[in-house]
Design brief:
The complex is a heterodimer. By secondary structure, chain A is mainly alpha-helical. Chain A has a domain at 33-253. Helices cover 71% and strands 3% of the residues of chain A. Chain A contains 13 helices and two strands, in the order ααααααββααααααα. Chain A has a two-stranded antiparallel sheet with strand order 1-2. In chain A, a hairpin with a 5-residue loop joins strand 1 and strand 2. The relative contact order of chain A is 0.19. The model of chain A has no long low-confidence stretch (mean pLDDT 89). Chain B is mainly α. Chain B has a single domain (19-31, 39-321), classed as ABC transporter involved in vitamin B12 uptake, BtuC (Orthogonal Bundle). In chain B, 77% of the residues lie in helices and 2% in strands. Chain B contains 14 helices and four strands. Chain B has a two-stranded antiparallel sheet with strand order 1-4. A two-stranded antiparallel sheet of chain B has the order 2-3. In chain B, a hairpin with a 2-residue loop joins strand 2 (171-172) and strand 3. Chain B starts with a helix and ends with a helix. The relative contact order of chain B is 0.19. Classes of the chains: A mainly alpha, B mainly alpha. Chains A and B meet through helix 4, helix 5, helix 11 and helix 13 of A and helix 6, helix 12 and helix 14 of B.
């Protein structure tokens, strides 16, 4: 996008417009949508899927796709919580999250090596690594949940922390979870890396035209490693964050999440052919997806329709981006 | 046709050296598993494999067809379940388990039409709206599964007519009927790919899309045909699966998707398009089914078998890479 393009013509503005329109419509159907309680719960639901979407965004900008991150997230979270429960180590909050992030990064490194060295289609590589991660986790480590009664207290406290706490009409308290800050912080960081650093620009360059990126001197192997390792790290972090927010570690968690996250990223304007996509667009896409899924109940639609709606949204979004990309080329 | 071209075509149809390698893998697995399990070389074991393997095999052939044009179809399992469920709902209206053979035939036709229709939708999305196959079929797969969930409300549909269950459970002489259907599908697809203009054009689109367009091939129409065929095969797999288990549910066979992709790739199909053959896919299928059946006998957990499938996929990729780089070097 060149600078003289008006901002309201940008993909982000279009997505934001759709988002506002949808919010107004849902609000008309059910005014309860605008209650602070619902908005806080929406923000809460954005956190985990949003952090995962940041990783998928990186991978899609580089021209790849990833279906392994849900398995990595479940594995990282379960391994760390299991260690905390069985061995009493690590303790606290910081070290567990650091370990989960590192575990995710290590698994991402496997993807990176395979995609880079083998020049193999990312979809097939990540299908394979996802099956390996889930198979090993459930077959060797275990299939039983760590429930709230055994769940590490430090993580429960962390997941419970609210920025603002309020009381609703019925006297129950609700709040804006502090984990929202983690999401916003990570989004800012990724935005900075993508727009202001050499490695970030190299990801765009590689995604748009791998050969050209190599010829102008980018070390494209490094870009790929950066992309897949960061996506793995974000997945590992998001996995433990999710677990601490629901006070439970489920080794079979996140099944089917890949579709939601990929749909959100595509909804936010990223192209699967690489070279396009932004953090702001992705965050808007995540918000639309989460909001529509959550609002089905508010609008009185049966939840069995959720999958149909998400699938249809994904198709509509990719159809729109396909039309946009075709126009852009002409 | 002169003789040399005929032999060349034959060896190409057999997949050349790759299929010999696969045959070797097949034998290695067979021997290893027979040593590891004394009960492996047992007629009953092979019969149960022949009942279990066709649904996965047909799905693998379906994935291969989608890959020939450089695409992929991630919606096959959703479509298979949707087809079986639609037929199941039809049977519920028509007398349930007591329905006669005529009703069963109509049910089969309904299920196949659902598959065909779903495949055409995929083909149109990919060819007309130019959506990437991964995203288009990821989306439609979700829609198909979602519709199946909406139609059933969650629980499995049970109580299929006897005629329907016979498709998945009866035997033709000593050979299980599903296996016969699988062989028929293999031969049919093999003939279609190697003996018709359709097959040639499909391969050309995958090898070089631009050249294919310049050669006057109607790419959009070919894509719709190929995804329609993929959808039809998915529905056949759905019929066999629900006939074998006497049930249909929106989330049956979820692990089949990875396995079908793995078998297609292992069978020598190039995911970037242009290369793939039915014999290779069948050989890959047989070795992997023997592998997992052997491990099951050794009481290896199903989760670890999933891991082995994934590791096998990655292992094959590494091996292919090493072999091809040695050839280049």
């Amino acid at each position: 996008m060149s600078a003289q393009n008006a901002w309201w013509k940008s993909t982000e503005a279009m997505v934001a417009g759709i988002l506002l329109l949808a919010m107004v419509l849902i609000g008309l159907v059910n005014p309860a949508f605008w209650s602070l309680e619902n908005l806080f719960s929406l923000a809460r639901s954005n956190v985990v899927i949003g952090i995962m979407a940041l990783g998928v965004l990186l991978i899609m900008i580089s021209g790849g796709i990833d279906v392994s991150f849900p398995a990595f997230a479940a594995a990282a979270a379960y391994l760390v919580v299991r260690a905390m429960v069985d061995w009493g180590w690590p303790t606290g909050v910081l070290v567990p999250f650091l370990l989960a992030t590192l575990a995710g990064a290590a698994m991402g490194l496997v993807n990176a090596t395979l995609v880079w060295k083998l020049r193999m289609i990312p979809l097939i590589v990540t299908l394979g690594t996802a099956a390996m991660a889930r198979g090993l986790l459930n077959g060797v480590v275990g299939t039983s949940n760590v429930n709230i009664n055994k769940y590490p207290k430090s993580l429960i406290e962390f997941g419970k922390t609210d920025l603002v706490t309020m009381t609703n009409a019925k006297g129950a308290t609700f709040g804006l979870p502090a984990t929202v800050l983690a999401y916003l912080g990570l989004a800012l960081a990724i935005h900075f890396v993508l727009s202001r650093t050499m490695i970030g620009r190299s990801v765009y360059a590689y995604g748009a035209a791998p050969e050209a990126a190599k010829r102008v001197g980018f070390r494209t192997g490094r870009s790929l490693i950066f992309v897949y390792v960061t996506a793995g790290a974000l997945a590992g972090f998001a996995g433990l964050l999710h677990s601490s927010m629901i006070w439970m570690a489920n080794p079979r968690d996140f099944v089917g999440w890949e579709l939601d996250v990929i749909a959100a990223v595509v909804l936010g304007g990223a192209s699967i052919f690489g070279g396009r996509g932004s953090v702001l667009g992705t965050m808007l896409g995540v918000f639309i997806l989460v909001m529509i899924k959550n609002s089905l109940i508010l609008m009185g639609i049966d939840t069995t329709w959720q999958r149909v709606v998400v699938g249809a949204m994904l198709i509509a979004a990719v159809a729109l981006t396909a039309l946009r990309d075709r126009k852009a080329i002409v | 046709m002169t003789n040399p071209s005929l032999t060349a075509r034959l060896s190409r149809a057999a997949g050349g050296a790759t299929n010999l390698q696969l045959l070797l893998v097949c034998f290695v697995v067979l021997i290893a598993m027979s040593f590891a399990n004394p009960r492996f070389l047992n007629a009953y074991n092979f019969e149960s494999m022949a009942f279990f393997l066709p649904e996965l095999g047909i799905l693998s052939v379906a994935v291969m067809i989608a890959m020939l044009t450089g695409g992929i179809d991630l919606s096959i399992v959703g479509l298979a379940n949707l087809a079986a469920i639609t037929a199941g709902l039809f049977f519920q209206r028509m007398g349930g388990a007591e329905a006669g053979i005529g009703t069963v035939l109509i049910g089969v036709a309904i299920a196949l039409s659902v598959g065909l229709l779903g495949g055409i939708v995929n083909g149109l999305l990919i060819s007309r709206l130019r959506i990437t196959p991964i995203l288009a079929t990821l989306g439609t797969g979700q829609v198909f599964t979602g519709l199946a969930l909406v139609l059933t409300g969650g629980p499995a549909i049970v109580g299929f007519p006897a005629g329907w269950n016979a498709i998945g459970n009866s035997k033709l002489g000593p050979v299980p009927l599903p296996f016969v259907i699988f062989i028929a599908v293999c031969v049919g697809v093999w003939l279609l790919l190697t003996r018709t203009a359709f097959g040639l054009q499909l391969m050309l689109i995958g090898t070089n899309p631009r050249a294919a367009v310049f050669a006057g091939i109607n790419r959009a129409r070919m894509l719709v045909y190929s995804y329609a065929l993929t959808g039809l095969l998915a529905a056949m797999a759905g019929i066999i699966l629900s006939g074998r288990t006497n049930a249909a549910k929106s989330d049956y066979g979820a692990s089949y998707l990875l396995q079908a992709v793995l078998i297609a790739v292992l069978g020598g199909t190039n995911p970037a398009g242009g290369r793939g053959n039915v014999l290779g896919v069948a050989l890959a299928l047989i070795s992997l089914v023997m592998l997992s059946s052997g491990f099951q006998m050794m009481r290896v957990s199903n989760h670890l078998i999933d891991f082995i499938w994934g590791a096998f996929l990655i292992g094959v990729l590494v091996l292919n890479y090493l072999l091809s780089s040695r050839k280049e070097g």
